[in-house]
User: What shape does this take?
Amino acid sequence: MGLDDITRRIAAAEQRAGRAPGSVTLIAVSKVQPDDRVTAVLEAGQRVFGENYVQEAQGKWPAWRERWPGVQLHMIGPLQSNKAKQAVGLFDAIHTLDRMSLARKLAQAIEAQERAPELFVQVNTGDEPQKAGILVDELSGFLVQLREMGLNPQGLMCIPPEAEDPRPHFQLLRELAETEGLAKLSMGMSADFEAAIAEGATHVRVGSAIFGARDYTTML
Ligand SMILES: *Cc1c(COP(=O)(O)O)cnc(C)c1O
Assistant: This one.
């Protein structure tokens, strides 16, 4: 299993960057993985997991949470507004707040359920037309609007463009968070989490390097 290796590499990256041990939270991204791979990682002691699909997460995590107490579940995939209610009930953090219509639905659900997952605003650092996320120029205004509706975002999240060096994007996200007074940075995946830690990531989202490659055909 890749968990030990990733945990060690995170600790080494923290040290190289002069950061406190344990300052980076590993989110083990378990989307689409076979149950036995995920339960093995639970058995090994990992408690923070990331999922991309509300329905898939709802199907597997309630039972696992009973069996392995202390699980923290992070929503890292695109969130449809009509799933906001269910997401607020299920997740401890939502990394993909990327538009006003979703913010409104989340605010309603948070008030109704008296349960407030930690919120990250997804930023489209590469200004990619097809990608979700708030544009850099619109971030400040978006955060103002969120606070006006009673939401209290804790951090920023990005997915750098696939074909580019991710580091400038990680740097940009960190600068934006500093400017906006946000403490948390969700950035870095299997291929680049060490670079993200060097740039200040507080949360890395690592899937295939822990669990092995994902087989999407099992979802059809
Ligand atoms: C799937 C996914 C990950 C994990 O990707 P790996 O390359 O398998 O580590 C991280 N972040 C997001 C947003 C994802 O959708």
